[in-house]
Amino acid sequence: MEEYRIQGLSCAHCAAEIEKKIRSLEHGESATLNYNTGKLKIDEKVDLK
Q1: How many Å from the N-terminal Cα to the C-terminal Cα in the chain?
Q2: Which residues of 28-40 are buried (b: 16+ CB within 10 A; e: fewer)?
Q3: Which of 11, 15, 27, 30 is 20 to 30 A from 38 in CA distance terms?
Q4: CA–CA gap between residue 42 and residue 19 (Å, rounded)
């Protein structure tokens, strides 16, 4: 599991869109982003570059 801190989220919708985009990447099926804490967790390793 990879864990990241996301800064500057302006709304819960933004967090949901980020989750959706990561899930669409290869091996990114299990991504969760907590809007309140800014913690992004990805169960599969994906290249975020």
Answers
A1: 17
A2: beebebebeeeeb
A3: 27
A4: 9
Residue 32 structure tokens: 């969760």
Q: Between the CA of residue 33 and those of 5, 28, what are the distances in Å?
A: 9, 13
pTM of the entire predicted model: 0.71
CA 21 to chain centre: 8
Instruction: Give the separation between CA 31 and CA 25, rounded to whole angstroms.
Output: 10
pLDDT in tens, 4-45: 999 998 899 999 999 899 888 766 578 899 999 999 998 866
